[in-house]
Amino acid sequence: MIMNLAIIGFGNVGRAFARILLERKQDLEKRYGFQSKIKGIFELNGAFINEAGLNIKDIINLNPNEFEKHENWKSKVSANNLIPKLDIDIVVELTHTNIKTGEPGLSHIKTALNNGKHVITANKGPLALAFPEVQELAKKNNLYLRFEATTGGAIPVFHLAETALMGNKIISIKGILNGTSNFILTQMSRQNVPFSIALKEAQELGFAEADPSLDVDGIDAACKIVIIANSILKQNVTLSNVKIKGIRQITKDAIELAREDGYVIRHIASAENGKLEVSPRLVPENSTFAIEGTQNLIRFETDLAKEIYIIGRGAGGREATSAIISDLLYIHKKTQ
Ligand SMILES: NC(=O)c1ccc[n+]([C@@H]2O[C@H](COP(=O)([O-])OP(=O)(O)OC[C@H]3O[C@@H](n4cnc5c(N)ncnc54)[C@H](OP(=O)(O)O)[C@@H]3O)[C@@H](O)[C@H]2O)c1
């Protein structure tokens, strides 16, 4: 069966996903019998639509100001209006993260699930704010809602929990879930510089946004621990249930004092004893949690396997695509 797809949001991740699906076309068919057609690509001001399947090669190299010239471009159509009418199996929701309302992603996800389409998303906002609601909607409609790329980028957090660790009782989950704040803490410690200088370096290298608040104030990591708590620990929680403390107040002196005692400071997100927290914590300098740079880490504490750590890249279009493709193949396998 050919899987018909629509992508909503054609930015960094949307383009990487379309490109890699094209590059891997033969490979995915040969290894998994997976065949797909992208019938729609939705952007803010319109969409590429072709019920027979879009020619992705034509589209992936276009700049947004060239979209209108393409024969399949339709101006001023929106995903919420058109998705219900298209013959689509899976909607891949890749718009920007909005942690105030979850929009536009939340409406896209609900529209898809209310109209018989499975959903894959990399967008944390809707899930951090409304996980119980959208999960229930998927369940009610017998559809899959998959979100591996929302948390830890390329790291297979959810797949690991639901497959390899499935016989375990998972007691707690702790992690470094934001590469930007980990980079800043690493640089403060390595170069003995204050927060403001380390932040500036992160911004110059493209690791931090001009407005870094989501990262350094712990909101991004909090969204991820909420998704983990709901899906793996089966808690019924949203962002408002997380105790959050950022890293802006960490001083050079605090880092120096920690170092004298053999510790480093890391921004840790945890789901433990029913409580969710994101805060700077002391970790022994030789512990696995003392990872450096932009890497992400997740530690599962389980009853049988005890501690399991996974470390990897938490950001990047190709890395996120690794996670999205794993969700795509999961749905493909389950629906054959
Ligand atoms: N980048 C990463 O490394 C990474 C990793 C894991 C997860 N994620 C998550 O993946 C999602 C996408 O990330 P990204 O880096 O690709 O973001 P991005 O480059 O900002 O792309 C988002 C795209 O969505 C479009 N968009 C905005 N409103 C829309 C609407 N109503 N309908 C259709 N399209 C709309 C934007 O168009 P305009 O530019 O015209 O507004 C933009 O092209 C985010 O939620 C992010 O948190 C990203």
Characterize this entry briefly.
By secondary structure, the chain is an alpha/beta fold. The chain has 13 helices and 13 strands. α1 (12-23) packs across α13 (317-334) and α6 runs parallel beside α11.
Bound molecules: NADP nicotinamide-adenine-dinucleotide phosphate
Radius of gyration over alpha carbons?
Answer: 21 Å
Let me know the average pLDDT.
Answer: 97
Q: Which class of the largest domain in CATH terms?
A: Alpha Beta
The ordered string of helix (H) and strand (E) elements is EHHEEHEHEHEHEHEHHHHEHEEEEH
Number of domains: 2
Structural class: alpha/beta
Per CATH, what is the topology of the largest domain? Rossmann fold
**Total number of strands:** 13
Name the assembly state.
single chain
CATH architecture of the largest domain: 3-Layer(aba) Sandwich
Query: CATH superfamily of the largest domain, called what?
Result: NAD(P)-binding Rossmann-like Domain
Any low-confidence stretches, pLDDT <50, length ≥5? none
How many strands, which pairing sense, and closed or not: the largest β-sheet?
Answer: 7 strands, mixed
Strand order of the largest sheet: 4-3-2-1-5-6-7
User: Total helix count?
Assistant: 13
How would you sum up this structure, described in words?
It contains 13 helices and 13 strands. With 336 residues, the protein is of the alpha/beta class. It folds into 2 domains: 2-153 and 317-334, NAD(P)-binding Rossmann-like Domain (Rossmann fold, 3-Layer(aba) Sandwich), CATH 3.40.50.720; 162-313, 2-Layer Sandwich (Dihydrodipicolinate Reductase, domain 2), CATH 3.30.360.10. Strands 4-3-2-1-5-6-7 form a 7-stranded mixed beta sheet, with helices on both faces. Strands 9-11-10-8-12-13 form a 6-stranded mixed beta sheet. Helix 5 links the parallel strand 5 and strand 6 (118-121). Helix 5 (105-114) packs parallel to helix 6 (124-140), helix 6 (124-140) packs parallel to helix 11 (219-231) and helix 8 packs across helix 9 (195-204). It is globular, with a radius of gyration of 21 Å. 42% of the residues are buried. The mean pLDDT is 97. The structure holds NADP nicotinamide-adenine-dinucleotide phosphate. Residues 8-14, 42-44, 79, 94-97, 104, 122-124, 149, 153, 315-317, 320 line the site of NADP nicotinamide-adenine-dinucleotide phosphate (NAP). NADP nicotinamide-adenine-dinucleotide phosphate binds next to helix 1, strand 2 and helix 13.
